[in-house]
Amino acid sequence: MNSTIKHYPRNAYLRMHRQSACVETFKSIYEKWLPTRVGIVSKSAIESYRIAYDHIQSIANMPINLIKYSDMQYVIDSMRDNGLSYASAKKVRTLLSLLSKYAIVNDIDIKDYTPFLNLGHDVSVYPHKPFTRQQINRLWSLNTTDICGILILLYTGMRCGELLSLRKNDINLRTKCLIIRQSKTEAGRNRLIPIHSRILPIVTTLYRNSSDKILPISYAQFSKQFKSVMTAIKCSHSTHDCRHTVATLLDKYGASPTATRAILGHKHGDITTKVYTHKELRELRKAIELLP
Q: Are 191 and 180 in contact (CB under 8 A)?
């Protein structure tokens, strides 16, 4: 009896064997792909990828060839339902697209659904508004460590990503200053911020308990903490409102525009290098201590 015998090319046979022996996931693809971007894109871009990756944990460990459009859309919908912005959802879509393309060019079986993902409307989730003095006082009255990061934001003007990137060697307790090394803008990098006297005990405790990052949690975890604290003090704010609060209060209490720009890391033409004189540091400290 005749039977049909299929002879596969050696490369095809090896490819089939690899696929059956090793099931790829977004996690495994991400771990292979991210190191290829180091040195090619900025440190802030790498940090943006890491933050976006935190949001895809519901599908990170699924076999990549079994992931459907509905799984990816669920990630986006969950982000928007939890109050995250269009911009945050767009960054996650970008990461999923990059990982999908990396998988495809490396002959990994996956369908790229990212062009079809619906991010919702591009509107501000929260209109930026400063914290009131009463709300800040209510924060101080809470008996939870979840307020530490929020208070640091409210007394430094840092961006959330800058706070989560802050390391132990970025803090000098002797001079009571911290340095921002990672920021989304060139003007924001390598800037000094004096540590306000009210948060010095918090920073000192975090410094002494730290082996590397001062606040060793992910963006997703910090967002969850932030939302919980906002519920506790019965108000609605975004993390960026902390930075907006610092800018508003510095203006209200008469801080010099130059000091305000230096603290917030805004671009300005009168300081072209990050070499601070004693006089400039005094001005920055004087400005930061205006915060109530």
A: yes
Residue-by-residue DSSP string for 111-142:
---GGG--------SS---PPPHHHHHHHHH-
DSSP assignment letter at 239:
T
117 contacts 73 by C-beta, under 8 angstroms: yes
| pLDDT tens per residue across span 23-41 | 899 999 999 999 999 988 8
pLDDT tens digits for range 154-211: 999 999 999 999 999 999 999 999 999 988 888 888 999 999 999 999 999 999 999 9
Token pair recorded at residue 272: 């072209």
- Nearest-CA neighbor of 136 among 113, 153, 118, 123? 153
Measured CA to CA, the distance from residue 187 to residue 270 in angstroms comes to 12
Quote the radius of gyration of the chain (alpha carbons, Å). Answer: 24
Q: How far is CA 93 from CA 152, 230, 292, in A?
A: 30, 28, 40
Q: Is the full-model pTM beyond 0.90? A: no
Q: How far apart are CA 120 and CA 194, in angstroms?
A: 40
* pLDDT per position as a tens digit, 92-108: 999 999 999 999 999 99
- Contact in structure between 267 and 187 (CB atoms under 8 Å): yes
Mean pLDDT of the chain, nearest integer: 86
Q: Which long-range contacts (CB under 8 A, 24 or more apart) does 159-163 make?
A: 159/183, 159/184, 159/188, 159/240, 159/243, 160/219, 160/222, 160/239, 160/240, 161/44, 161/47, 161/48, 161/51, 161/219, 162/188, 163/214, 163/215
Do residues 247 and 264 make contact, with C-beta atoms less than 8 angstroms apart?
Answer: yes
